[in-house]
Amino acid sequence: MEPDRALDDLKAIRQIMEHARRATGGYGGWYMVLWGAVWFIGFLGTQFLPDEAVAWLWPVLDVIGAAGSVWLGVRMGRRGGVYSPIWRPMLLYWLVLIAFDGLLVWLLHLDAGPDLALLVTLTMALGYVQFGLFTHWAISVIGALIAALAVGAALLLPDYFCLTLAILGGGLLMGSGLWLVRHEDEERE
Amino acid sequence: MAELNPLIHQPTRLRIMAALVGMDDGDKAGFAFLRDLLHLTDGNLSAHLRVLEDAGYVVVEKTFIGRRPKTWLWAAPEGRAAFATHVDALERIIHRQ
């Protein structure tokens, strides 16, 4: 076989492998839009609504977020004619993280308030950082930004902690999620 | 020394294997997805898949989603190994230049 032909074959292989890889990715951005919206409504409500309403607000929003995540996961599993089993470990990963938070809340006897909000925010930020390591680097960067934002708001603006997280945290998640969706679409074209 | 695999060497089969090996472990490609990705006809893809399946390089799974038949395809471990050996052989040819 001539070296030129071998080179052509290798180029074709790389190109097709790249196309196949791109076709199997995606949907990370929609998760961020979904949970950004949950954060926005939840933290905005926490800032302005009475405690009795907030006690109902978060569980309802979490159920909506979880149901939406499962729906996205199933869609991701069957994206564009490619079945990917990755959504199951991803779902398990987030459930473990939520269980970890629940355990900490129980062990430390945390009530609803800034400490609990900070703990949940930092755990979720850690989740985004770890999740991004396996999916898209931008998700890790956003996780780190949210962690810095949460600590900064807790220290510098304690009275407006929830409002800051609603607008900047939720906004950052939704905005970067939409950016990621567009970026993923461009990569696939 | 790695040698060219005559079965994978055929251009269409080379592209089929590249697409299937290019997906993550555990991922499965739908028949229509692979056909469109490689710009092949149903008959052409089926014929080459049969050769690769007979060699144990590709797994073909026929299922139903509701009442609609669906064919899933993925590279078998033997297929991944054979493909890697073939790519090694191609790289050796280039470096021999």
Secondary-structure element pattern of chain A, one letter each: HHHEHHHH
Assembly category: heterodimer
Summed over residues and divided by their number, the pLDDT of chain A gives a mean of: 82
State mean pLDDT of chain B (0 to 100 scale). Answer: 91
Low-pLDDT windows of residues of chain B: none
Question: How large a portion of the residues of chain A is in β-strands, by DSSP E?
Answer: under 5%
Known CATH architecture of chain B: Orthogonal Bundle
- Give the class of chain B from helix and strand content and strand pairing: alpha+beta
How far is the N terminus from the C terminus of chain A? Answer: 34 Å
Order of helix and strand elements from N to C terminus of chain B = HHEHHEEH
How do the strands of the widest beta sheet of chain B line up side by side? 1-3-2
Q: How many strands, which pairing sense, and closed or not: the largest β-sheet of chain A?
A: none
CATH topology of chain B: Arc Repressor Mutant, subunit A
Radius of gyration of chain B, whole Å: 14 Å
Structural class of chain A, please? mainly alpha
Percent strand of chain B equals: 15-25%
Question: Quick summary of this structure?
Answer:
The complex is a heterodimer of chains A (189) and B (97). Chain A is built from seven helices and one strand, in the order H-H-H-E-H-H-H-H. Chain A has 189 residues and is mainly alpha-helical.
Please characterize this protein's 3D structure.
The complex is a heterodimer of chains A (189) and B (97). Chain A has 189 residues and is mostly helical. Chain A has one domain. Chain A contains 7 helices and 1 strand; from the N terminus they run H-H-H-E-H-H-H-H. Chain A has helices at 3-24, 28-48, 51-77, 87-108, 114-134, 137-156, 161-188; one strand at residues 82-83. Chain A is elongated and about 75 Å long. By secondary structure, chain B is α+β, with helices and mostly antiparallel strands. Chain B has a single domain (6-95), classed as Orthogonal Bundle (Arc Repressor Mutant, subunit A). Helices cover 58% and strands 20% of the residues of chain B. In chain B, strands 1-3-2 form a 3-stranded antiparallel β-sheet. Chain A binds chain B through residues 1-3, 6-7, 9-10, 12-13, 16-21, 23-24, 80-86, and chain B through 4, 11, 14-15, 18-24, 26-30, 32-34, 36-38, 72, 87, 90-91, 93-94, 96-97. Strand 1 of chain A pairs antiparallel with strand 1 of chain B.
